[in-house]
Amino acid sequence: MTRSILYVLALCILVGCNNDATNTTPPVATGTPPARDTKPVPKFDRDSAYAYVEQQVNFGPRVVNTDAHRQTRDWLIEQLERFGAQVTKQDFEARAFDGTNLSATNIIARYAPELEDRILLAAHWDTRPFADSELEDDPNAIVNGADDGASGVGVLLEIARQLGLNTPDIGVDIVLLDAEDYGEANASNPNSYGLGAQYYAKNVPSPKPRFGILLDMVGARDATFLVEGYSEKYGKDIVRKVWRLADQMGYGNYYVNERGSGITDDHYFINTIAGIPTIDIINLKKDGQGSFAPHWHTGDDNMDVIDKRTLRAAGQVVLATVFREAAGTL
């Protein structure tokens, strides 16, 4: 690609090429040079992210110990390697709440592995083995996990593709966590969830990331990313930066600066075990209770609920966060 094309692309990103949402990054303040070389924020391709979500769903429910789970694992590793990441598997055995032995795998994709200063981006790639939402009438319904699992992974795959083309001056660890959703119903045993995150938090590769962002349920139409409770507790400064940047980029209707409930999600264990300040970008309803979307843990969690605009709102802001943090201008 010629320099002139790169310049036009960078200019397009800065002024906003799409007409359904502003995806620009705020300008660097004049008279205050960035701490590092500034590289333009790449444009997040929402169609590409959507295709990655769809491919995961096409494998079927990614329940641990199933063929669909193994096929998805191999495909994810193949994609990340194709995008230029240094990929390692973190295989582990875990005992589920019901006594099932889970053979699971965290997938760790590192960009610029030689750099000490690193950011963690994470999502879980497994799906719920049963439909247990009180809104689901059919207990045998198939949970395809288009939003709950695949959306965050799809966004991170597109970010990985962009990082392979436009590496910022900071290390990035993309971690796809397994066995998040094989927990006891009704959250009666919160520690039965996030088994992959618990393993990762006890075995974080060196150098340890400085902070992290978790993406969970970031693909549904009209999603609202409230400020999740544990994110505020452990990563208040990160929340402030990301939500402010999102508002400046025109995504304030998604990143709503209102407090939601604390969710025992993967980031909880990364915060409390690994000590990495990590926030959760997650779709929470604005009803004062921080409850989830109606398709959560039901047979309705399929591609019909996925909206490309929401995927872009999540992905473009996270991409901008990485590149602005690399430049010292976040």
UniProtKB/TrEMBL annotation:
Pfam families: Peptidase_M28. Residues 106-321 form the Peptidase M28 domain. Residues 1-21 form the signal peptide. Keywords: Acyltransferase, Signal, Transferase. The keyword Acyltransferase applies. PANTHER family: GLUTAMINYL-PEPTIDE CYCLOTRANSFERASE (PTHR12283), GLUTAMINYL-PEPTIDE CYCLOTRANSFERASE-RELATED (PTHR12283:SF6). This is Peptidase M28 domain-containing protein.
